[in-house]
Specification:
alpha+beta; Aminopeptidase; nine-stranded mixed β-sheet; about 30% strand; globular
Length: about 260
């Protein structure tokens, strides 16, 4: 066999074995600016600027401080883990979670976000289990106590769902919420999610296995003009007691493969 004939055979073989690499590079390019390296907002609501953005390694200290402050409200509804709450919120845990989140986001399987209020880390939200073939995803979130009363949770949820449906092409978003987690249920009802049923013994949270209610919303159910704008307008027009800011922290859904869901 001549050199030319060998090259003729080698080229299609090389193309065949390089297909996974080409697909990975294509997916990486498609996900940049869609599920990673993303900034949504700012949206100003009730005198505060709300931004959703991709997590950073440098967020570790603010994330840890917020999660430790909110332990009493979040831990009972968060996925069980043999480690203590403090052990789950170290710099190493954050970096490990961040690396996993970046990998999942760049593959197009997840969409992790930090919720910033006036430039400070106030919570997280995102999508997991993004399935392009069914155009579905699972939503999760947590937010520091107090911001929900000022419309932050609604605007953050609106920005997330608007991006999911208009940019990512997701048509249906679900949020499994533990039975009894009234704060989370209240938050998703305001966003327009509807309860579709109860899943017995769905997940172990806070050291016990609990039933979870399945909440869902479809792209067709979002308001014209965007959900984020609708939530901002509703918050601005809602009556509020002067100085009232403290409400239960909202911890909706199961942990996404985002930095807070450290292994």
């Amino acid at each position: 066999m001549t050199t030319r004939e060998l090259l003729r055979c080698a080229v299609p073989v090389a193309r065949y074995y390089l297909r996974p690499l080409r697909r990975s590079l294509t997916t990486f390019r498609q996900c940049e600016g869609r599920t990673w390296n993303v900034v949504l907002g700012p949206v100003r609501v009730c005198g505060h600027d709300v931004v959703l953005r991709t997590p950073r390694v440098a967020d570790a200290a603010e994330w840890r401080a917020a999660r430790l402050r909110e332990r009493r409200r979040i831990e009972p509804w968060w996925a069980s883990d043999p480690r203590s709450w403090a052990e789950r919120h170290t710099d190493a845990a954050w970096v490990t979670g961040w690396l996993q989140a970046r990998q999942q986001a760049r593959a197009g399987h997840a969409f992790p976000l930090i919720i910033e209020v006036d430039g400070q880390v106030a919570g997280e939200c995102g999508l997991a289990w993004i399935a392009p073939h069914t155009a579905t995803a699972e939503m999760s979130a947590w937010l520091e106590a107090g911001w929900g009363a000022l419309g932050v949770s609604g605007v953050a949820g609106g920005l997330l769902l608007d991006h999911a449906t208009s940019v990512l092409g997701v048509q249906r978003v679900i949020a499994p919420i533990a039975a009894g987690n009234r704060a989370a249920a209240w938050a998703v009802v305001r966003l327009g999610l509807r309860k579709e049923g109860r899943m017995a013994g769905y997940l172990e949270v806070g050291g016990r296995r609990l039933d979870h209610d399945l909440w869902a919303i479809t792209a067709e159910q979002l308001p014209e003009g965007g959900l984020a704008e609708a939530m901002r307008a509703a918050a601005e027009n809602a009556p509020r007691t002067r100085g009232a800011r403290v409400t239960p922290a909202e911890s909706a859904g199961t942990p996404a493969p985002a930095p807070s869901g450290s292994p």
